[in-house]
Amino acid sequence: MNKSTPGSQLARTGAEAIFESFDSFHNQFKAITLRAGNRFLNREWPDVQKDAAQRLGLYRNMVGEIEVEIRRLLEDALVDRSVWIAMKSVYSGLIRRRNDWEIAETYFNSVTRRIFFTVGVDPQIEFVNTEFDTPPTSTSNNVYRSYLPKNGSTDAAELLLRILKDCEFKVKIQNPDQWAAAAAEQILRHVETGNEFTPVERIDVAGSIFYRSKGAYLLGRIMTAKCQWPLAIALQHPKEGIEIDAVLLDEEGLSILFSFTRSYFLACTDRPYDLVRFLKSIMPHKRIAELYNAIGYNKHGKTELYRDIVHFTSECGSEQFTLSPGKPGLVMIVFNMAHDDLVIKLIRDRFRSPKTTTRNEVIEKYDLVFRHDRAGRLVEAHTFEHLKFDRCWFSDELLDELRKEAHETVVIQESDVIIRHAYVERRVTPLDMYLRTAGPESASVALVDYGNAIKDLAVSNIFPGDMLLKNFGVTRHGRVVFYDYDELCPLMGCNFRKIPPARFEEDELADEPWYLVGPNDVFPEEMARFLGLSPELFKILMQHHADLFGVAFWLKAQDAIRAGEIIHILPYPQNKRLIQTRPHIN
Asked: Could you tell me how far CA 328 lies from the centroid of its own chain?
């Protein structure tokens, strides 16, 4: 377009280009997601991982392409606000009949922010809140199916059998009658009220099947006369055929299944809004943002998270943002948000010794975590740029820390604080603090799970780098997760070695090692020296995870990855598996 092109024509051309780009994104996203069913049916596990990685990178690639196109189309009018205001209006009209209008609005925002680098938000050229009464479209297809007993029957097994037979891979489920009976036994035991038999009146099941790694999940809710219960039927596909592996019947179990430490599901739906609201009905304490994340719409999840942040910070109160408790990080400044379970993390201007990494390397580590299978152990971090808060939210101590350590990232004005680059994460309790206050049994459980977390990361090709307790946290469900990524790296990039014998007694007392250390060398036996555990807790750790401090475990994990072995990390404990409780199934 040249300078003489009318603004209205520019606006329509630009809006249509973004709309066509979004439509292409939607079609490719859906095509990748739709492959998940056949991948599970045919046990194509490496391809499942490739599809998940491809879908993760799709949004960024598509927005990058349309940014280039918009710059070409608008030329001198690129930052003409009147053109963009008109573009937003035209675009709004184009998406009003779509079932994924909210995702389309976020897509437009992503393009505008690539062009304008807006501080805070600009409602004239961005969809700060949706433009529509939600939902703006109607549908004849319900997001879930309802299963009612036939002819007054109280047979829950018959209901489950019908649910299984409606699955897209029904022909592959082995012994469906027996699996349904075993699952029904678990359900009836769970919903029983005292000694009173409580019949199941209805089961609602989402029409979407949720795929992730080697698992497939049916999500729904169980209705009785007295209560509603969440339901997740976990399916696996060993060589013998598809089988029910577990039945989850409480919100905590489903919340862990949908945790912010897990990779996204591949779950195909034409109306994300409806599916998210159905999931919210069975996990009422989950943020809407987390549910959008879980089904792969992480950019809109970020939009919903930002709306939450705006809501919680609309008016200053007595509570303020404060530095997070625990040992300060050498690379990151971390502070808690008032009235919320979130933390904001900023990269320091300069890193304290002995850290030798760079700012760009830290950003790359966070990007690696985004692209990688998080194995239920890596906390999701949303990247935000140009955040703007009222200064009244910041404690004096926090402002002093930001002035001294992050003046290249933070602008402190008379009435506002602007943060140019930050990560927003869910808050967890640092493991070292948790162990100091927990009772002996809770501390023991957490320490054993700390070892499990390291092993889960290892089999998914992640080495934490820094295994200090302060870099791990405990969630509200008691799970141990990792959140300090500046030393994280692929396990296959590490060279695990034994410490060679000392030549002389003086060698072991020297400040420097008596042996050569390469840049990727790791000496597992050194790890235990810096944990700072009491003798009692160290004994417990060694009873369960002594292999972490030897070379053999790490070399075996590398061999498995090299051989293409994919380990399915269960999102539920072993005692929830049906195989533990069901009668023998031939």
From this structure: 25
167 pLDDT band, cuts 50/70/90, is confident
Query: What are 15-69's pLDDT values in tens digits?
Result: 999 999 999 999 999 999 999 999 999 999 999 999 999 999 999 999 999 999 9
Q: How far is CA 306 from CA 120, 255, 333, in A?
A: 10, 21, 20
CB 211 within 8 A of CB 36: yes
Mean pLDDT of 303-330: 90
> How many other C-beta atoms can be found within 10 angstroms of the C-beta atom of residue 581?
13
Could you tell me the pTM of the whole model? 0.92
Report d(CA 511, CA 279) in Å as an integer.
Answer: 56
The mean pLDDT value of the chain amounts to: 91
Alpha-carbon span 480 to 472, nearest angstrom = 7
Q: What is the mean pLDDT of residues 550-571?
A: 95
Distance CA 189, CA 187 (A): 5
**Residue-level pLDDT at 4:** 54
Q: Is the peptide bond before 354 cis (omega within 30 degrees of 0)?
A: yes
- Residue-level pLDDT at 524: 93
| Rounded alpha-carbon distances, angstroms, from residue 240 to 102, 114, 131, 214, 283 | 42, 50, 51, 14, 33
> Residue 583, preceding bond cis, omega within 30 degrees?
no
- The reported pLDDT for the residue numbered 129 is 85
Residue 284, Cβ density class (10 Å: 0-12 exposed, 13-18 middle, ≥19 buried): exposed
E strand or H helix that includes residue 573: none
Q: What is the pLDDT of residues 556-565, one digit of tens each?
A: 999 999 999 9
- Other CB atoms within 10 A of residue 320 CB: 18
Q: What's the token pair of residue 407?
A: 């003046």
The SS3 assignment for 275 reads helix
CA distance 462 to 373: 9
Q: How many residues does the chain have?
A: 586
| Nearest-angstrom CA–CA distance, 477 and 449 | 12
Helix/strand/coil (H/E/C) assignment for every residue in 335-391: EECCCCCEEEEEECCCCCCCCCCCHHHHHHHHHHHHHCCCCCCECCCEEEEEEEEEH
Q: Are 100 and 49 in contact (CB under 8 A)?
A: no
β-bridge partners, 36: none
β-strand pairing of 144-147 with 200-206: antiparallel
